[in-house]
Amino acid sequence: MKTLRIALLEYDIAWENPAKNFEKVDELLKGVGADVFFLPEMFSTGFTMNPEKNAEPIFGKSFKFLQQKAIEHQAAFCASVPTKSDGQYFNRLYWVEPNETFVIYDKRHLFSLVGEEKHYTAGLERKVIDYKGWRLMPQICYDLRFPVWARNDLNYDVIFYVANWPERRKTAWLSLLQARSIENISYCIGVNRIGDDAQGIYHSGDSNVFDAQGNKLESLSENKEVLIYELQKEDLLETRSKFKFLNDKDNFKINL
């Protein structure tokens, strides 16, 4: 597929209320067509540090909701969910396709500023997803601050971040998304929530897509809660053919 049409859902997440958030997502999806739908980090609960109450089993209601939407819209759906697996809690991203194929990525860098590492277990593995002729690398929020974890030595076309990133650090969010696109010569996607969470922390959204040269793309939608973009494979390949910077990259090994 030469063109990948994507939708970023940017909404005010109801605190620890999956049913209400499912209703909100259903409302936003009406009349929207895309190949991939990206939802924020912990899309059904908000960024909760209470996994004992909110974590779901691997095939819990949030996963099943994403799976149902994927089938209904014949598109991939992606979001993270607090998940309990083998007696541990994870901030787990699910990529769910309409043929019931799915990929799991566990957040590597846990946000110590609020003690996320005290409640969740860090992931140990990077992933690359093959979908419709595109290769995509999933990451979650705070992972954005760690460029080594995102380094494009796996030949991906798109790196994406699902997030709950506060407005007070908006400059870092936008600057780092742009930096990841430039240094990895790839599209970079960031989807974020809006509104106040239970701690009164305000989120301004600022979901964005940058091309492989760091240029900010303009949404094709007038709906501020559903941003639509089209990624062009030919543009990406042309940029990589012209600017072969990755040929000069340093080799390294990540010790976990």
TrEMBL record:
Picking any one GO molecular function of the record gives: 2-oxoglutaramate amidase activity
Which EC numbers characterise this protein's activity in its record? Answer: 3.5.1.3
Give the similarity note. Belongs to the carbon-nitrogen hydrolase superfamily. NIT1/NIT2 family.
Q: Classify the source by domain of life.
A: Bacteria
What are the residue boundaries of the CN hydrolase domain, all occurrences included? 4-233
Q: Which UniProt keywords apply?
A: Hydrolase
- The UniProt record lists the keyword Hydrolase: yes
Write out the catalysed reaction: a monoamide of a dicarboxylate + H2O = a dicarboxylate + NH4(+)
The record's annotation in InterPro entries points to: C-N_Hydrolase, C-N_Hydrolase_sf, Omega-amidase_YafV
The protein in question is named: Omega-amidase YafV
Keyword Hydrolase recorded = yes
Q: What is the lineage of its organism?
A: Bacteria, Pseudomonadati, Bacteroidota, Flavobacteriia, Flavobacteriales
